[in-house]
Amino acid sequence: MSLRMVTVSLALSLLAVGPGSCQEEALPEGTITCPGDGAPMVLIPAGSFMMGSDDRPAEQPVHEVSLDALYLDKHEVTNAQYKAFVAANPQWSKANVDPALVTDDYLKSWTGNDFPAGEENYPVTFVSWYAAAAYAQWAGKRLPTEAEWEKAARGPEGNRYAWGNDWDPPRANVARQVGRTAEVCGYPPTTWGLCDMTGNVMEWVADRYEETYYGHSPEANPKGPEEGESRVLRGGAWNYFEDRSSNAYRFFLVEPILNRACTDFIGFRCAMDVVAEE
User: Fold this and answer.
1) Where are the domains of the chain?
2) Which residues in the chain come in under a pLDDT of 70?
3) Gap between the Cα atoms of 194 and 165, Å rounded
4) Dihedral of the CA atoms 116, 32, 195, 12 (nearest 10)?
5) CATH class assigned to 3-273
6) Which of 69, 95, 141, 147 is least surrounded by Cβ atoms within 10 Å, i.e. has the fewest?
């Protein structure tokens, strides 16, 4: 077994029993509430979409992808939600966390086990991919795949940005307008009801990064390459401008180390499979 696989297994084995799996308790407008972390989730219907763009080699070629239905968190995981995770899993507190799973910057903006005053509804930042994956499992969910994330961000219209195809910075926390993260859902949602798919923070997804993956990825439910030392980040951020804020833009950390928690513009949201009724 590779060191990478051992580290991932270690990360997930450090979890305590979560507060409960998500239940598909239907609410209006295709949303549900996840008892695992109390997050509202939005239904992304099954179907095909055109993934990628001609902007950069890593986004080429534009290709059709077919996906099963899924639920996606309405907004990025917040400080308050992550604090509940840490309280239930003290091995993920700043004082106790395994340094193989995070760097010294883990939860850098927090004091001990608490986030800055008044920022309970801001996205949690300074979290590594391992931390994001562990939170998702605790909540009874998972990280979305890169394809799932892009389809959700594009919406039924196939938009370039969360709101449409034309760059319009006031529609999101981008281009250093605010100068830092902002409270989740402070801007208009997408057609499907998702918040901050463009801007605020970049979001960890499940897939490993490979620049040429689109050239040989499967048409149905792609999950990324089997090898790779970094995971993909999506969605632009508060400090990103037009060229790095499109729904097709792919980012990864350099050097590609999964335990890095080094910035105030990286966070995540979770996904959940839709279980067919028997």
Assistant:
1) 3-273
2) 1-30, 35, 256, 276-278
3) 17
4) 60
5) alpha beta
6) 95
What digits encode the pLDDT tens for the residues 223-278?
999 998 899 999 999 999 999 999 999 999 877 678 888 899 999 999 999 976 54
Neighbours of 81 (CB within 10 A): 23
Any residues with CB less than 8 A from the CB of 193 and at least 6 apart, and which? 29, 30, 31, 42, 74
